[in-house]
Amino acid sequence: MVGGGEGAFIGAVHRMAAALDGDWRLTAGAFSTDAGRNRRTGEQLGLDPARVYDSLDALLAAERALPAEARIDVLAIVTPNHLHAPMAIAALEAGFHVFCEKPMAMSVAEAEAIAAAAKASGRTFALAFTYSGYALVEEARVRIARGDLGAIRLVQVEYLQGWLSAPIDEAGNKQAEWRTDPARAGIGGCLGDIATHAFQLAEHVSGLRAEAVAADLTIHVPGRRLDDDVSALLRFGGGARGTLKASQVAAGEENGLKLRIHGERGGLEWAQMEPNTLTLRWLDRPAEILRAGGPGLSDGASGLLRTPAGHPEGYVEAFANLYRGFAAALRGESGGWFPGVGDGLRTMKFVEAVVANAASDRKWTRIDPGESV
Amino acid sequence: MVGGGEGAFIGAVHRMAAALDGDWRLTAGAFSTDAGRNRRTGEQLGLDPARVYDSLDALLAAERALPAEARIDVLAIVTPNHLHAPMAIAALEAGFHVFCEKPMAMSVAEAEAIAAAAKASGRTFALAFTYSGYALVEEARVRIARGDLGAIRLVQVEYLQGWLSAPIDEAGNKQAEWRTDPARAGIGGCLGDIATHAFQLAEHVSGLRAEAVAADLTIHVPGRRLDDDVSALLRFGGGARGTLKASQVAAGEENGLKLRIHGERGGLEWAQMEPNTLTLRWLDRPAEILRAGGPGLSDGASGLLRTPAGHPEGYVEAFANLYRGFAAALRGESGGWFPGVGDGLRTMKFVEAVVANAASDRKWTRIDPGESV
Amino acid sequence: MVGGGEGAFIGAVHRMAAALDGDWRLTAGAFSTDAGRNRRTGEQLGLDPARVYDSLDALLAAERALPAEARIDVLAIVTPNHLHAPMAIAALEAGFHVFCEKPMAMSVAEAEAIAAAAKASGRTFALAFTYSGYALVEEARVRIARGDLGAIRLVQVEYLQGWLSAPIDEAGNKQAEWRTDPARAGIGGCLGDIATHAFQLAEHVSGLRAEAVAADLTIHVPGRRLDDDVSALLRFGGGARGTLKASQVAAGEENGLKLRIHGERGGLEWAQMEPNTLTLRWLDRPAEILRAGGPGLSDGASGLLRTPAGHPEGYVEAFANLYRGFAAALRGESGGWFPGVGDGLRTMKFVEAVVANAASDRKWTRIDPGESV
Amino acid sequence: MVGGGEGAFIGAVHRMAAALDGDWRLTAGAFSTDAGRNRRTGEQLGLDPARVYDSLDALLAAERALPAEARIDVLAIVTPNHLHAPMAIAALEAGFHVFCEKPMAMSVAEAEAIAAAAKASGRTFALAFTYSGYALVEEARVRIARGDLGAIRLVQVEYLQGWLSAPIDEAGNKQAEWRTDPARAGIGGCLGDIATHAFQLAEHVSGLRAEAVAADLTIHVPGRRLDDDVSALLRFGGGARGTLKASQVAAGEENGLKLRIHGERGGLEWAQMEPNTLTLRWLDRPAEILRAGGPGLSDGASGLLRTPAGHPEGYVEAFANLYRGFAAALRGESGGWFPGVGDGLRTMKFVEAVVANAASDRKWTRIDPGESV
């Protein structure tokens, strides 16, 4: 693992997620550029001090030198955004698989470089679009893919947080600080941090590709350098229409990721904060409530669950499903899904299209200029 | 009352709403151009057959000829949209107050003509933006007006219905038929029918004016002549950003009008299908649930309620609040609020701006070209 | 109407409920023993002063003397409990139908006297068990009656209010005062006031008869003379087991009447504060949400609704359904259901059984000693 | 670990819960009396084959013989109920701490024997009353303990499952089979399996002791040998009144554990299926929604959480909190709470009191006959 020293949030989540099913063991790390913090983190995690490295370079060099069965298999990257691409490329080129925090990179160009490095090295790149790991998200995907809703007409996705409502980035909050710093976060603030989750979820579940976007990108908190609020209209292939709303200044909201998709015959709704429920509403019959562990789930969704109905699974379990799927894929087992290069590239194109559109007087911007719309 | 014969929906609602508090009595009508239907409706309602008229013209002429204390005070107009303006103007000019179904008219020009007629006649024009009659909507308005949320940053409003998902307008459904016919509905389908409710509610509660709109107007059901789906971004005065989503092809949805507004310090949420609850979420303290009849309500909201906490009031009661407010205003009492000419004009400008924007490649269209943005 | 002067709660509800559908008109009343209050109430309601009487006796005598087509048809009784029986009997004997507030009477003996008076006079007695007037309650009843859930095993009903948590009855609250006075309320406080609603609803919807009860009757507020809290176990015919919880000291609760019934194949849940939803849960398939106006409703339930799906109907509409059903029955129309003598007698037997059981060391008390269990 | 072989449910949960925070490592086990199953489980878990034992006796003997730093610290017991006491006593006497599935034992006498063994050996006994590990349960406990609600008047707890609605115990379902077999489950079916959870939660959170119970114990599924449905009235010290409902034949219900407690000034509600929310309702101000990770939580509750607000934690995390608390206590850290001997003894007394009361004609049975009521 690179990054994730004492006090960091997402590194600890990766460790819990990887530990949950017993598929993974943390054996080496370069957790912090602060030597003391790095060492202490290694100790707290019970690592062999010899495998707690000063830098990613040191880690890669030393691990490569170990016998194949002793060295790490996968590098988990949990650093701020600007380090994702160089680190991922270095690890892939050193022969290691990579499990990377999102967003994939700072730009489409960087993301494409990762994709090329993965291809050249024959190693696998996984990306932590955590929310697609929930069982009921998979159920939603399956239901749409098999046509239960008919042709899709509407895709509404939103992701509302409120924690950046005040200028805490200027008051020393580390999580806030790097996320609002273009040098470390990239060209998008809220856009890169959470709108990408929303976009990936919408495309992943709907099975559709967004072709064009019209967006409004706003900085509500004075002095902030990156957007803290995103509103967008989307046009999907096949004629579906979408809205995407993401905000980190929706004061009082927690982590409100919600997806609603309607087709000719009905609609579905899933909300991350009550993740074990999927509501299906129908034009001509009563709404149905699908529940984790309950009757009516597809095999794919059921396979992502660990407990019987009514024993809630949460965020860590969804995250663990990605690690589990990644492990299964590396073992060559079928059915081991995880988000990867494709998801990452699409979201980087979305980020660049939104930024371009927001600066333009023209209504629509194509998300993938290389594609014919 | 003009319109609202046997089988019509909204006419019956007006009658229930007006009856509820005992302020109004239905004494005359021209319910249908079908003579039999007109007569039968009058009978069912227990009217004096002499006051069941063949046409609005006949009604106005005859009622005007009655002594002042015997004639009607107010004409309720519950016809399809294209008749609103000519009938309202005729009634106002004949000296009667008007309570009109929304939308106000077919165009801004027509709406302005009504406004002029009201002014010239000294009569009052009320408009059935029903949803602003709910007590908890008033509470939301009061809370924002007095600054509880701080400066407003986000306004999200949505109105999702599914009943036009299939081409029922071509299969003889009368409610659907006229709503999708440009000659009777106007230039907006879903836009005129329900997006106007959403827009009025957003401006009414937020106390803000939307200055510009970027919109996507879609016909999802093949063969339909008017939009059945609206997506829009809004820019409000003062820097708030908005999204407005309205659809009549969100299969499985009922009458899902929902408003969320966030300011610097917190946000509020109100949903029409559970109208007796208003949720307030705060940046720095636990969320609060305000309930009809419960502690913490303003006097204004409490005054709109008829029953103690936990005895749900619904759509008819909200509607009745408009009739009650209108009656109070006509009696010269203070505090008798009802939507009127101002609300109607704003929504007609919104409709025209959306239609113009949807046909344009430019991103933003001003809602009121006469205003400096 | 007798009772329901200025400031009274339930009288106004009766008037709104009766007005809603245009079936009824209030023409006479004895609203208060306070002459000024009585007169003012009549004026506010627009009544002919000649038909605003000093007393029920005066009303009955005068109305009886009017020609049949001019006199009242039905007397609505909205006084405190101790007056229900003498007034109902007087009205029935005078040849008028009666629509009475619940509870029916102060005792089983009084209830039986009303039943006898109704029978002897050939007049009809209706009882305001309001909650059985909701459309989704009717749907629940129909579903169970037609066997959707299989044989019933569990009946859980609860009715939680908090408004008597503090000793407001000693602080001049009139609603609280008479409800906690044995002379006016009877032998049950919370028991008579709201547990009776819960009991009637449970029997009405389940179609089962409770045979025996084990109860705990408590006075939580020091100095109060009647119970403010009821807990009971019920045994129903056919082997179903029940729990009934009613409280008026559940601080913070509003009017939380909730019914859950489970059978061999599934269960249903209905809650008065969200009355337009009925949840059906199944052993072997996803839960379904039935909604007022939505697909899947029986004709009986649909017939109790006035508005399309998503336009919430509430307490007044449920109440109006009883008045509408009563009107239909008096007109001899089929399908006009309303609660009457049977419901009233059962609940009075329940009240007496609970009071007896609560004073006893024996676990079970039969609800109808005259029945063979 | 003893028990928890392939296919068992709760053993896997214990393993995930123990792994989550990195406090524990599984090093030895006797997973099944079936040798092949035992061996395969050990392999799947990556254990040293030498520490996968044929029996608990073998495990205890061999581990005891290891050097202190190599042997196990704690034995997790995840077998059917009838083995809890003998195994716990054997492990305690062999010098190991014990983390035991609930219920503690088959009888009060057995539970007391465990308590004595723990005392004699100086080892610690922890009991998997999982639900008391949720952060919002701790918050509820803290709020009541510090008097927010005032004196407690009502305690309502329910635990509804539906999975035993059909006779699946006779159709080969292993989970169902032993739970309905008196030889393995004890004198209570639903009573021992889930009513004990409800009872422990009610006492733990309210801080009150139930003194007497009046109960109805039912077998709804013909042929079943133990109760599948429990209804009980409770009288608590200090005058609070309680109801407890537990059922495993509430068809369609999942794992519906819900606790409501009301005091003089307000009430709280917590439901296991949405465990990250605690609702507080007040007599004189709006209801508040406390959320995991949100503002207003006590330090104790916050300390049980791993992720920020809006990232749901679930059943495994609650379970892990017990393992974490147990680890902290064994390390001698303050604040490391876990349920233990006291909780276990109380629930066994409750079980015996309910069984005795259900067979009696007397209304109330004391839960702890040794206590003065």
TrEMBL record, chains A, B, C, D:
<dbReference type="InterPro" id="IPR055170">
    <property type="entry name" value="GFO_IDH_MocA-like_dom"/>
</dbReference>
<feature type="domain" description="Gfo/Idh/MocA-like oxidoreductase N-terminal">
    <location>
        <begin position="9"/>
        <end position="127"/>
    </location>
</feature>
<dbReference type="InterPro" id="IPR036291">
    <property type="entry name" value="NAD(P)-bd_dom_sf"/>
</dbReference>
<dbReference type="Pfam" id="PF22725">
    <property type="entry name" value="GFO_IDH_MocA_C3"/>
</dbReference>
<protein>
    <submittedName>
        <fullName>Gfo/Idh/MocA family oxidoreductase</fullName>
    </submittedName>
</protein>
<dbReference type="InterPro" id="IPR051317">
    <property type="entry name" value="Gfo/Idh/MocA_oxidoreduct"/>
</dbReference>
<feature type="domain" description="GFO/IDH/MocA-like oxidoreductase">
    <location>
        <begin position="138"/>
        <end position="269"/>
    </location>
</feature>
<dbReference type="InterPro" id="IPR000683">
    <property type="entry name" value="Gfo/Idh/MocA-like_OxRdtase_N"/>
</dbReference>
<dbReference type="GO" id="GO:0000166">
    <property type="term" value="F:nucleotide binding"/>
</dbReference>
<dbReference type="Pfam" id="PF01408">
    <property type="entry name" value="GFO_IDH_MocA"/>
</dbReference>
